[in-house]
Specification:
Structural class: alpha/beta
Radius of gyration: 19 Å
Helix content: 25-40%
Distance between the termini: 36 Å
Number of strands: 7
Shape: globular
Length: about 260
């Protein structure tokens, strides 16, 4: 199974444990794009609608794409009270497209899954001439000691392929995406913003979160359960809960 299609198998869990996005981020995107009530937004990879809700609550019209039927089903339920939100079950690559139809394209924790050869070109073609692209992602920071070093040891023992920076680090300023966006022939100068925040986790909430991550989903069941069991024991041995810090990184640019 292609890695990006693993999320649909844990759709119900995904909607409950995946982190949401800071509210100021939505206001900053709207201001940057100069959105008005008549403008349309295209969302690439909406999942269960965590980011979609931020635009829906502000009264905007969104066409949200996702290839997961279960994910889209939950998103539809979550956003049933917003008639301006529409969904289509499709990858961005397979979607037929609506040329020059949107003032804003957004991708929350999803743009790294889009095929590199069309990532910027197809996005630009969906935008009106003054349209903008906003890409953002939550990056978890290593837990403070003693948990951070203990988690690193556990991954080295039970899942060495997952040791090191998380996949979400793709959104850090010194990671590949920032440079790719800046070098794109389709978009102008990139504006970057960072939003630090945190949330508390206990063993159950944290291991449920890990169960929704694609790389963890691809582990053999036995290896995944050994890994999560060791993490559960470690959290219990160090007070039963901890604060996980995040940085949400946002990148915005207008179509050339």
């Amino acid at each position: 199974m292609e890695q990006r299609f693993t999320f649909d198998g844990v759709a119900a869990l995904y909607g409950g444990v995946r982190p949401v996005y800071p509210e100021p981020l939505f206001d900053d995107i709207i201001a940057f794009a100069g959105l008005t009530s008549t403008d349309r937004i295209l969302e690439i990879g909406c999942g269960t609608g965590q980011a979609t809700q931020g635009f829906a609550r502000r009264g905007f019209s969104v066409l949200a794409l996702d290839p997961g039927s279960d994910l889209i089903g939950i998103a539809r339920e979550n956003l049933a009270d917003f008639p301006n939100i529409h969904f289509e079950e499709s990858t961005f690559e397979a979607w037929q497209g609506e040329m020059s139809a949107f003032k804003l394209v957004v991708a929350a924790q999803s743009f790294h899954w889009v095929a590199p050869d069309i990532r910027f070109a197809k996005t630009a073609s969906q935008l009106i001439p003054v349209g903008a692209l906003a890409v953002f992602g939550n990056v978890p920071l290593p837990p403070a000691p003693p948990l951070g070093p203990e988690f690193a040891r556990i991954y080295s023992q039970y899942a060495p392929s997952l040791a090191g920076p998380p996949a979400e680090a793709w959104y850090l300023p010194d990671a590949p995406f920032a440079a790719l966006f800046e070098e794109s022939d389709y978009f102008g100068p990139v504006t970057h913003r960072c939003y630090p925040w945190s949330r508390m986790h206990n063993a159950a909430s944290y291991t449920d979160l890990l169960r929704t991550l694609s790389a963890h989903r691809l582990l053999a069941d036995e290896h995944r359960e050994l890994l999560l069991g060791a993490i559960t024991e470690t959290i219990a041995a160090h007070g039963g809960e901890f604060e996980l810090h995040y940085e949400t990184h946002l990148y915005m640019a207008r179509r050339r």
